[in-house]
Amino acid sequence: MKIPKLNRITLFIVVFTLFSFIPGPEKEYRILKNVSFSRGEKMSFRLHYGFINAGEAFFEVHPDLYKVNNRTCNKITVFGKSTGAFEMVVHIRDTWGTYMDTASLISQRSYRDIEENNYRLKEYVNFFPLEGRAHVEKHRKGIHHQDYVIPNNIQDIISGFYFLRTINYNELKVGSIIKVDAFFENEIYDFTVRYDGIDNVKTKFGKIKAIKLTPIMPENSLFDGKNAITCWLSNDENKMPLKVKAKMFVGAVEIDLESFSGLRNPSCFKR
Q: In degrees rounded to 5, what are phi and psi of residue 154?
């Protein structure tokens, strides 16, 4: 049986795969402001197909700061696992992580530890943005090393998600397109996301006014149409993900916020 790519589904949906290529590294780091998240933040999510629970995901911004490439970084970890009846079909225990530059909000290092039934992969990516280079070390049937050319303001999947939380959507017009550079599975991804204004979304915590985003998906065999994914962020300074809906060829999947703690700012709703 072919193993479903739940790790890719979960993270591409929660994180929305929202990226676009811009060539040519610059000679210095950009400086961007982050008022949306800080050390100690934790969130948990439930992935389900209708009433069937399929998985859980846990996001954490670690309490300590780290030095990578002589840059101060937040370490952010995402752990995902299969649950319920889905666990009887596919056993998944995946860990993804990033060291995200606190000043430029780009990735300095990322890693994956993938466990899906009998499939195993460990991967470490060191980014050298000012050199326009990424070094990938993969542990699967031996150890493999490879260098890749990257744009300057690079993100991995996790840091790209957190970068999107720092955008001031109040300054955008409805229909505005956001572009971000990302490196994933040895490629630069060319994705965009559309800001669709403020919407009411039903959550575990009640009906909440939220920032609505729609990733513009390229033609693929996983998602049904270029507007197949919709996601909602809390309409406050935290811009915390509340819900994701995705229309897939195998059915509709949803991801919902279950719990949170350690927010940087007061929440627009109560737990």
A: -85, 145
- Over residues 238-262, the pLDDT tens digits come to 999 999 988 754 567 899 999 999 9
Counting DSSP H helices and E strands in the chain, the numbers are: 3, 17
The verdict on residue 268 lying in a domain is: no
Q: Give a yes or no: residue 1 inside a domain.
A: no
**φ and ψ at 14, to 5 degrees?**
-60, -45
Q: How many domains, in total, are found in the chain?
A: 1
Which positions ≥6 away from 43 have C-beta within 8 Å? 58, 59, 60, 240, 241, 257, 259, 260
Quick: pLDDT tens for 183-234.
Answer: 988 888 877 889 999 999 999 999 999 999 998 865 544 444 556 689 999 9
Mean pLDDT of the chain: 86
Task: Give the residue numbers spanning the domain of 249.
Answer: 6-261
Q: Is residue 117 domain-resident? A: yes
Residue 22, SS3?
coil
| Residue 255 to residue 14: CA distance in whole angstroms | 7
Which ranges of 94-175 would DSSP assign to H, the alpha helix?
A: 157-164
18-43 mean pLDDT: 74
CA–CA gap between residue 12 and residue 94 (Å, rounded): 14
pTM: 0.85
Q: Does any domain span residue 135?
A: yes
- Contacts of residue 220, Cβ cutoff 8 Å, sequence gap at least 6: none
**Euclidean distance between the first and final Cα of the chain, in Å?**
41
